[in-house]
């Protein structure tokens, strides 16, 4: 039988947070960190990956503070790097591979800088790179980020449908099931929506931005995966990360938007499994 969200659902108490997560498999620890956006959770981002990856690894898909079933928190107090460290400590994990989509990729890079001894491999998918743009538009947030913020203000089915459709290249992946999961998760925790929106005027809507001048300090093997057709975070950012992170390589997927793990799950799972096992 296929794994379900309820089968894998767990909660752990850390010094600062009650964190919800999904756990499956055995072997080397693999921590999956979701992106931002209303209704984003470890399960909604990685439902198509957890079971496949759990055949080789001990997989943990975490709802980070401010998202999903984990504790709410105002943006100015969020520190996802510290939350990840506390999560590992609470579960007795000395070292793990990190896989992060978008905001989760940003957190994973920051974690690799701040806690290099606790991370074995770094894999990102479309993280926002805090570096000057050369080719992407410079007129403010991307098309996708504008709709993402709109969905925080109005998580109605119509707006959520627009958000999901802009996240993917092929609209067939914007399934009614995914739309319902995201919409239900967003509406279930209105405090998450309010805290995110209240934090926007104070600066970037990503907790604890990393210092781009420290990217060269990332020493672990790094795999940068990005969709060629990403309308949320332009793939130029991954090319810049490739130039900054010494032990890195990049995979650019055509006919792919911001959610490589959802649009190309079989290829994504193979890339991750091979890289963590042999990279």
What does this structure look like?
An eight-stranded mixed beta sheet has the order 1-2-4-3-5-6-7-8, sandwiched between helices. The longest helix is centred in the C-terminal third of the chain and has 14 residues, at about 265-279. The radius of gyration is 17 Å and the shape is globular. By secondary structure, it is an alpha/beta fold. The mean pLDDT is about 90. Helices cover about 40% and strands about 20% of the residues.
Helical proportion?
25-40%
Unreliable spans: none
**Silhouette:** globular
Evaluate the radius of gyration.
Answer: 17 Å
Number of domains: 1
* H/I helix tally: 12
Q: Within the CATH hierarchy, at the fold level, what is the topology?
A: Rossmann fold
């Amino acid at each position: 039988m296929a794994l379900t969200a309820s089968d894998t659902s767990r909660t752990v108490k850390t010094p600062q947070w009650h964190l919800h997560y999904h756990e499956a498999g055995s072997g080397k620890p693999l921590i999956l960190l979701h992106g931002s956006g209303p209704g984003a959770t470890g399960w909604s981002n990685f439902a198509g990956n957890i079971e496949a990856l759990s055949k080789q690894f001990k997989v943990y898909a975490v709802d980070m503070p401010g998202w999903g079933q984990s504790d709410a928190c105002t943006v100015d107090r969020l520190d996802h790097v510290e939350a990840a460290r506390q999560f590992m400590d609470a579960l007795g994990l000395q070292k793990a591979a990190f896989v992060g989509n978008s905001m989760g990729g940003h957190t994973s890079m920051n974690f690799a800088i701040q806690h290099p001894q606790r991370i074995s491999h770094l894999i990102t998918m479309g993280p926002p790179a805090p570096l000057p743009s050369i080719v992407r538009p410079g007129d403010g947030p991307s098309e996708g980020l504008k709709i993402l913020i709109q969905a925080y203000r109005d998580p109605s089915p119509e707006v959520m449908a627009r958000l999901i459709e802009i996240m993917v290249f092929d609209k067939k992946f914007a399934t009614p099931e995914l739309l319902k999961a995201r919409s239900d998760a967003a509406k279930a925790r209105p405090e998450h929506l309010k805290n995110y929106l209240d934090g926007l005027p104070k600066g970037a809507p990503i907790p604890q931005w990393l210092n781009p001048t420290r990217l060269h300090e990332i020493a672990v093997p790094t795999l940068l995966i990005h969709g060629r057709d990403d309308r949320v975070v332009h793939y130029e950012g991954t090319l810049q990360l490739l130039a900054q992170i010494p032990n890195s390589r990049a995979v650019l997927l055509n006919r792919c938007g911001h959610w490589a793990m959802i649009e190309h799950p079989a290829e994504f799972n193979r890339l991750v499994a091979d890289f963590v096992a042999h990279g």
